[in-house]
Amino acid sequence: MTEDLLARHRAVLPTWMPLYYGDEPLEIVSGSGRRVVDAAGRSYLDFFGGVLTNMIGYDIPEISAAVSEQLATGVVHTSTLYLIRRQVELAEKIARVSGIPDARVFFTNSGTEANETALLMATNIRRSNQILAVRNSYHGRTFATMAITGHRGWSASSLSPLQVSWLPSGDRVRGRMRGLSDADHIEVAVDELREVLATVTAGDVAALIAEPIQGVGGFVHAPDGLLGAYKKELDEHGILLIADEVQTGWGRTGDHFWGYQAHGVTPDLITFAKGIGNGFALGGVVGRADVMNAVPAISFSTYGGNPVSTAAGTAVLDYLLDHDLQANARRVGAILLDGLRTALASCAVVAEVRGRGLMIGIEFVRPGGNEPAPATAVAVFEECRRSGLLVGKGGLYNNVLRMGPPLTLTEEEAREGLAILVEAIRTADAAAVR
Ligand code: PMP
Questions:
Q1: Domain ranges of the chain
Q2: Does residue 138 have its Cβ closer than 6 Å to ligand 1?
Q3: Strand 163-167 with 130-134, pairing
Q4: For ligand 1, what atom is nearest to the CA of residue 214?
């Protein structure tokens, strides 16, 4: 059945669409809690949540009820040209939790559109097409967002009219930040920012956009405080800071509700998507009123902020606040992170176990050095699937395993997944050093 679907997929969808698990792709047909079931009836513990999208989990009664209530009115959506009560209510809640005083919210259908919108605002208010971005970033799949994506494998076009200058990523396994203390890392990065501003830009840069933890880039993150140190420099030039919180928002990082809070800074604009919809298409920008209001002509999204997706978003936000899922992410994430670090300390193929909360990456290298080992990552990734655990892959060299389970993950489930991961990685380690 799934084989037939794969053949039909290949015959009708473009060749460049990525599919996990090669010739044995996964077709998920149902889910409950943190588990999904495939077309062959196999059950999996889900440590990837559809790329950190299923933030609450599957089949959550509160979310289904909110969506069903809207569907029961007979209106899926009419138009954002009319007042939408659910949109206003969700905007009020997001403005309140954003950390930005007097914030405004604009809803989109995806993270890409959210970033595109943030770029529109920043470039308009600053009357500049110059953007600072971070190497190894991912921000979307439109012309503009691909231009600020610092990852060759995900940047299929360079045709955007934006002028982009690059700042170093937080990679400490290799590259210039290797072996540096946090303080030195920040100093080198701020020096780089100063140099970029003094040399390759025309002095009127619109914004810096950064993911507090790089998602697609393999959960690489700079030391806490770096964005705050950058902001001091940016403020001298009036340059805006955009935090792309598409993966890091809503308490996922455990210690903080937003990733930016680890940096002692408040961004001018925050972009969000993925988890807030828990599967429904919902994204947006929340930001300073003066920046958000500065778009000179009417801008509109047919489906952005529709009643069904905002009903889902409201139920998700209420659920995660009512159940303090941020605290759960901190507690259960620590079990996973500490457990992995301890169990894998002697594995020669593991260069780094990193992340925070329920956003954890494991980077694989060839034993004895720091040469990326994508084949080891694939072997572990596939073995996990065979053992009933779904995880993600990523990183600049495709050598990082990514875990971003629903924030409702229980301690027992964390330990179950941990055991599978450790077994798979130790087996791969033994094979690599043999
Ligand atoms: N920003 C980040 C940090 C992301 O991880 C992604 C998606 N992987 C996007 C933006 C784009 O979001 P979408 O796929 O919803 O357009």
A1: 5-59+324-433, 62-323
A2: yes
A3: parallel
A4: 3
Task: Write out the two tokens for 378.
Answer: 């694939």
115 Cβ below 6 A of ligand 1 = yes
Question: What ipTM, to 2 d.p.?
Answer: 0.99
Q: What is the CA radius of gyration of the chain?
A: 21
Question: Hey, what CATH topology would domain 5-59+324-433 get?
Answer: Aspartate Aminotransferase, domain 1 (3.90.1150)
Looking at the CA of residue 216, tell me the nearest atom of ligand 1: 5
* Residue of 112, 146, 285 best suited for mutating to test ligand 1, as the one with most atoms within 8 Å of CB: 112
Ligand 1 centroid – CA 139 distance (Å): 6
Q: Which CATH class is domain 62-323?
A: alpha beta
DSSP string for residues in 18-58: --TTTTS---EEEEEBTEEEETTS-EEEESSHHHHT-SS-B
User: Is the distance from the beta carbon of residue 139 to the nearest atom of ligand 1 less than 6 Å?
Assistant: yes
Spell out the per-residue pLDDT of the chain, length 434, in tens.
677 999 999 999 999 898 999 989 999 999 999 999 999 999 999 999 999 999 999 999 999 999 999 999 999 999 999 999 999 999 999 999 999 999 999 999 999 999 999 999 999 999 999 999 999 999 999 999 999 999 988 888 878 889 999 999 999 999 899 999 999 999 999 999 999 999 988 879 999 999 999 999 999 999 999 999 999 999 999 999 999 999 999 999 999 999 999 999 999 999 999 999 999 999 999 999 999 998 888 888 999 999 999 999 999 999 999 999 999 999 999 999 999 999 999 999 999 999 999 999 999 999 999 999 999 999 999 999 999 999 999 999 999 999 999 999 999 999 999 999 999 999 999 999 87
Strands of the sheet with 43-46, listed across from one edge: 28-32, 35-38, 43-46, 389-390
264: left (phi over 0), alpha (psi -120 to 50) or beta: left
- What is the rounded CA–CA span in Å between residue 405 and residue 229? 31
Atom of ligand 1 nearest to the CA of 111: 12
Instruction: Indicate whether residue 273 lines ligand 1 (CB < 6 A).
Output: yes
Q: Does residue 372 have its Cβ closer than 6 Å to ligand 1?
A: no
